[in-house]
Amino acid sequence: MNRRDRPGAADAAAAAAGRVAGERRVFQNSLSELAGAGEWLRSFAVECGLTHEVTHDLDLALHEVLTNIISYAYRDNGHHEITVVLREHSNRISVVIEDDGVPFNPLGVPPAHPAATLDQSPPSGRGLSLMRSLVDELQYARRDGKNVLTMIVVLDDPFS
User: Fold this and answer.
1) Which domains occur in the chain, in start order?
2) pLDDT in tens, 23-67
3) DSSP string spanning the chain?
């Protein structure tokens, strides 16, 4: 079975109809929110019938994005909201993250080159490379003063 297979996913009629289901949550700019975001994503993944591997990849990618936003996106210590939308499409899952932090396009950051040795490896700065390796597509837009990052995982057709 391929890592993108979806045992227990929506039936063929729903998939053929192009069904889109989604959930939206708002999180505060606090690292204490990460556990709740992960639990919510894993619950959504179970409802969608995603494999353990796909669920793990999405969970890790979302954790990385939220950690980066909370840690680096705000120039103040004020209250900020981060909106996350999870959507199940007939052949993919999308995760849309919206924040009002400083403008930052992660697609404009070139992929990191691996260090020759562990000693030469920097202690941080691998998050974007990790995120890129976990999802099939990344999209970025700056809309209405907000960063909007979309992560997409393409799912294999469970009916082929």
Assistant:
1) 23-113+125-154 (3.30.565.10)
2) 999 999 999 999 999 999 999 999 999 999 999 999 999 999 999
3) --TT--TT---HHHHHTT--EEEEEEEESSGGGHHHHHHHHHHHHHHHT--HHHHHHHHHHHHHHHHHHHHHS-SSSS--EEEEEEEE-SSEEEEEEEE-SS---GGGSPPPPPPSSGGGS-SS--HHHHHHHH-SEEEEEEETTEEEEEEEEEPP-TT-
